[in-house]
Design goal:
Ferritin, nine-stranded mixed β-sheet, two-stranded antiparallel sheet, 18 helices
Length: 532
């Protein structure tokens, strides 16, 4: 399969940047998705973004599958009218069967009727009834009294313009882009809660273009809304590969987020095995016996209530029992457990994971380094994520660093990349990587691995350094890139002040929220006492 350097991605438009660009009708030019999102956002009025998200995304999904159905139906009618009424003819092309009462044209014609909420709910239920893969996935609460039916009708009119008059494949791609853009837009609107279902696209692109998932099984144990999978498919497609060459697997513990992922992948026409259970990957590993060629994950940072006390003797803890109060090293070992013999993984974690000595994390980190499963460490700039201001890093893990499959012998080495100075502020609070930033990071990694046409690797002071295990031992197995590339700004305890301050600030904000909730509870109880 063709291999090459990262190409410029036409979908890499940032939300705020795109919003400043004028749209040009319904064409797929730069800024169309942003203008559409701004128009849709005006319609939501007082509805919370977390509620409105499902209203808008559900309708975009319905528009997508109806478009795909109508395109296929027209093709079948031209050949055989009887075949056009056979659901199996659509299933064979990975097109959902859409009953007559659920087709977008029917909803659009009735958008101004007071019964539109019930019509949409009925449409969703009808689609689920004849498409087993969508059972329990689609939102069906459009008829609730709190949802303004005038707003709903206006939103249907707005979405009706997407991809109108576009050929089938172009329409599908445009609707997929709109769906993905809206996911990012709602994540930004929801702030911290938005980060629970959405990883910023530029961060996902770094992970995907570092690992280059051309062929094999791809897995995400906490897949959110499925962004890792969408970008993996885009990568294969843009580099001349076949989408059928990768098989996608995932798990998600939040049912609402799992439903978003299922719709996101369906909009893209991506076939995937995404499991849901509310216990999560640690306690009910749905795919325990499978091993994967590529794993990409953005687990929740520093999660303390992960139930580690109930997993003390788990076979996944090859390098040591992760502390009960922090799941970071539980995620790393869960991911290593699932890697195939030549598999590689990219994991987003809080910066503290690179240097923490608390509760035995340093012992686990030392064991992982000495086992030579750490391939590359990348420190990221702050403000990349919706959910936290805590600086983050990327861990790249490899089951084997032996020469083979076009890669050189990397045994006994770890590549360190300090990307803290990269990225551009796209608004007051958030930063994104551009194409040049992503190319700089990924090109260094590919050259260090010895990939064909990647060029010769060289250490760049202040940016990247290939360190030996002996050098890492000299730093007590701390994996902070700044220690190795020569540009560290670190306090005596090896945790940068900006990170310690961010952690303290986030902790304080959480305590404020808890205090407010407790105050409200006390006031309600006092009111009940006064009434009695």
């Amino acid at each position: 399969m063709p291999r090459g350097r990262p190409k410029k991605n036409p979908d890499a438009t940032s939300a705020p940047a795109a919003a400043s660009t004028k749209a040009n009708g319904n064409s797929a030019n730069l800024g169309f998705e942003a203008q559409l999102f701004l128009a849709a956002d005006k319609l939501r009025k007082n509805l919370e973004p977390s509620d409105y998200k499902h209203v808008a995304l559900g309708l975009i999904f319905l528009k997508h599958i109806s478009n795909a159905f109508e395109v296929k139906r027209a093709a079948l009618l031209a050949e055989d009218a009887a075949a056009a009424e056979d659901p199996d003819e659509y299933l064979a092309e990975n097109v959902f069967w859409v009953p007559k009462e659920a087709r977008w044209s029917h909803l659009q014609a009735n958008a101004k009727q007071p019964t539109i909420g019930k019509l949409v709910d009925d449409a969703m239920a009808a689609i689920e009834a004849v498409n087993a893969g969508l059972k329990g996935v689609l939102p069906k609460d459009y008829n609730r009294p709190a949802l303004d039916k005038v707003m709903l009708g206006e939103l249907i009119d707005l979405i009706s313009g997407i991809a109108t008059g576009q050929p089938g494949e172009q329409a599908k791609d445009l609707l997929g882009r709109v769906y993905e853009y809206f996911l990012g837009g709602f994540a930004g609107s929801e702030g911290k809660r938005g980060g629970e279902f959405y990883t910023p696209r530029s961060v996902v692109r770094v992970l995907v273009e570092m690992l280059e998932p051309y062929k094999g099984r791809v897995y995400d144990p906490c897949c959110g809304s499925g962004g890792m999978f969408v970008q993996s498919e885009k990568f294969v497609e843009s580099h001349g590969g076949r989408l059928g060459d990768i098989a996608i697997y995932g798990q998600e513990s939040n049912n609402t987020t799992w439903r978003l992922a299922k719709m996101n992948l369906a909009v893209r026409g991506i076939d995937a095995d995404i499991r849901w259970n509310n216990e999560g990957s640690f306690h009910k590993d749905e795919l325990r016996d499978l091993r994967f060629d590529y794993i990409l994950a953005n687990p929740p940072f520093n999660i303390s209530d992960w139930g580690g006390d109930r997993l003390r003797e788990d076979a996944r803890w090859t390098y040591g029992m992760p502390p009960v109060g922090n799941a970071n090293y539980g995620w790393l070992q869960h991911i290593l457990w699932h890697l195939a013999p030549n598999g590689t993984a990219g994991v987003v974690l809080a910066n503290g994971s690179m240097s923490s000595g608390q509760s035995g994390e340093d012992v686990i980190r030392r064991a992982m380094v000495e086992a030579d499963v750490v391939d590359c460490m990348v420190s990221l700039p702050g403000q990349l994520f919706y959910s936290t201001q805590i600086p983050a890093c990327l861990w790249f893990l490899a089951r084997s660093k032996k020469p083979g499959a076009g890669l050189r012998d990397r045994r006994g080495e770890v590549l360190f990349i300090d990307a803290r100075k990269l990225g551009t502020l796209v608004d007051r609070t958030r930063r994104e990587f551009g194409d040049e930033d992503i190319a700089k990071i990924t090109s260094a990694y590919h050259a260090w691995r010895g990939e064909k046409d990647a060029g010769a690797y060289e250490d760049v002071p202040g940016f990247c350094k290939a360190a030996t295990l002996e050098e890492i031992r000299g730093h007590n197995h701390i994996l902070t890139p700044g220690r190795y590339v020569g540009a560290a700004d670190v306090e005596d305890d090896e945790v940068p002040f900006v990170e310690r301050f961010a952690v303290l600030r986030e902790t304080l904000e959480q305590q404020f929220e808890e205090a407010e909730a407790l105050t409200s509870t006390i006031r309600r109880q006092l009111a009940r006492v006064a009434v009695s």
